Amino acid sequence: MSAAMLELRHISKTFNPGTINEKRALCGVDLVLEEGDFVTVIGGNGAGKSTVLNAIAGVWPVDEGSILVGGIDVTGLPDYKRAALIGRVFQDPMTGTAATMQIEENLALAARRGKRRGLRWGVTRAEREEYRERLRILELGLEERMTAKVGLLSGGQRQALTLLMATLRKPKLLLLDEHTAALDPKTAEKVLNATEKVVGQEHLTTLMITHNMRDAIHHGNRLIMMNEGKIALDIRGEEKKNLTVEDLLHKFSVATEEEFSNDQALLSR
C-alpha cells in the first residue's frame, strides 16, 4: 500500500476524439500528494485544472493512466463509489447544501453519508454539541443559528457550511474547485481562512483550484501551475513561502517559453 494520499500515474484525457472539436485536456499527468499536503492549483483557461479534479472525483473516466486515493486504485470506480474517500466543494454555494433544511440537519445528513438510514433521523444532543464546536471554528456565528434554514444564509456562510459537511467524516482527499470564485473578495477571504483552519485541524490532504494567483501563493504548502494539460511548475517549501506573483509569472514563462495570459488570474492578483 502506498503512503501517498493521492497518486496520479500518467493520466490522459481527450474530449471529442477524432472530431473537429478534439481537445487534449490532460497529457500524461503524474502527481503525488503526501498525507497533509495542501496543494493550490493555478493555470490559464483550458490548462487542465478542472479536468484533473473531475478525473480524480470520477466525473468521467480517464483514457489512460491510474488514480489512487489513500492507496486504493479508484481508476475504474464511478464517482458515487469514490464519495467515501473524497470530499468536494464546488464553485456554486448553492450546490452542496439543502436550502429548506436547517444547518444542523444538513450537518447530520453529511455525518450519515454512506450509512444505512433507519427511521430515527433526529439529531442527538451529542451530535449537536459536535456540530456547534465545528461551526465555531469558522468564526461566522453559525453555531448560534443551528436551527436556521440554510436558504437564509449568505453565499459565504453556505460555502463555509459546505466545507464542514465535506470534511465532517474525514475524507482521504479534499477537492476544492474554485470554491471562493463566486464570492466577493472579503467573503472569499473569510472562507479561505476557514478552509485553512479546517484543513490544518483535521490534517486533510487537499487540492485547491483557484484562479487567483495571490490566493494560490498565500495558502497551502505547495503550488502547482498547469499549462496545456501538463504540470508546468511544482513549487513547495521555502521557495513557495518567499514567492511573489512576479516570481511566479517569471518562472512560468521560463518553464513554458510563453507568457501567462489569463486576464482573470492577472486581474485578481
Question: How would you describe the overall organization of this protein?
Answer:
The protein is globular. The model has no long low-confidence stretch (mean pLDDT 89). With 269 residues, the chain is of the alpha/beta class. Helices cover 35% and strands 23% of the residues. A hairpin with a 7-residue loop joins strand 1 (6-15) and strand 2 (23-33). It has ten helices and ten strands. Helix 3 runs parallel beside helix 5. It has helices at residues 49-57, 79-82, 103-111, 125-138, 155-167, 185-202, 213-218, 237-241, 245-256, 263-267; strands at 6-15, 23-33, 38-43, 64-69, 72-73, 86-89, 173-177, 206-209, 222-227, 230-236. It has a six-stranded mixed sheet with strand order 6-7-8-3-9-10, with helices on both faces. It has a four-stranded antiparallel sheet with strand order 2-1-4-5, covered by helices on one side. It starts with 5 loop residues before the first strand and ends with a helix.
Can you count the helices?
10
Main β-sheet, in a few words? 6 strands, mixed
The amount of beta strand, in percent, is 15-25%
| Proportion in helices | 25-40%
Tell me which oligomeric state these chains represent.
single chain
Cα distance spanning the termini: 40 Å
- Given helix and strand content, the structural type is alpha/beta
Could you tell me the mean pLDDT? 89
Radius of gyration: 19 Å
